[in-house]
Design brief:
Order of helices and strands: EHEHHEEHEE
Helix content: 25-40%
Shape: globular
CATH architecture: 2-Layer Sandwich
Strand order of the largest sheet: 1-2-3-4-6-5
Strand content: 25-35%
Number of helices: 4
Distance between the termini: 18 Å
Largest sheet: 6 strands, mixed
Structural class: alpha+beta
CATH class: Alpha Beta
């Protein structure tokens, strides 16, 4: 397995054949669609079937949006394929700078918060997070590569 890391804003199909892809996540909600488009090109270059790629894109979108809206920069998306028993899985990881401070007197709108966790839980084989003493947090999800 090739462990080369691709770290570019735009990805060609040849570069995306690497087994690991990383992409900085700009700290702006308007940039989530660009991150998603680059991830789609990588998944396509890896030969990910349509349904598996669509599921991965939903999870990527939810996790990246969460990092942009609720965490401190910098953030980074990392994708790779790994063996999960006798099947292949897509690992989606988003590392962020840790939870953003909540301003006093503000509460999240219940209509706009919490749905991402439901989406990730429904589509992932398993998921979780790792917090480090540096303050960063990595959120991860494994999805079937079908």
């Amino acid at each position: 397995m090739n462990s080369q890391t691709v770290d570019r804003a735009d990805v060609s199909a040849t570069e995306a054949v690497s087994s690991v892809y990383t992409c900085p996540v700009p700290h702006s909600p308007q940039e989530v669609s660009g991150v998603r488009r680059r991830a789609l090109r990588v998944l396509a270059a890896w030969g990910t079937p349509g349904a598996a790629a669509e599921d991965a894109l939903l999870v990527i979108s939810e996790m990246v949006t969460n990092a942009v809206l609720h965490a401190m920069p910098p953030a980074e998306l990392r994708l790779f394929i790994h063996a999960d028993g006798d099947r292949r899985a897509i690992r989606v990881e988003v590392t962020d700078g840790g939870a953003a401070p909540v301003w006093p007197g503000t509460t999240p709108c219940p209509d706009e918060s919490g749905r991402g966790a439901v989406v990730v839980d429904a589509l992932a084989i398993r998921h979780g997070s790792v917090s480090r003493s540096s303050g960063t947090t990595t959120w991860w999800a494994d999805l079937p590569a079908r």
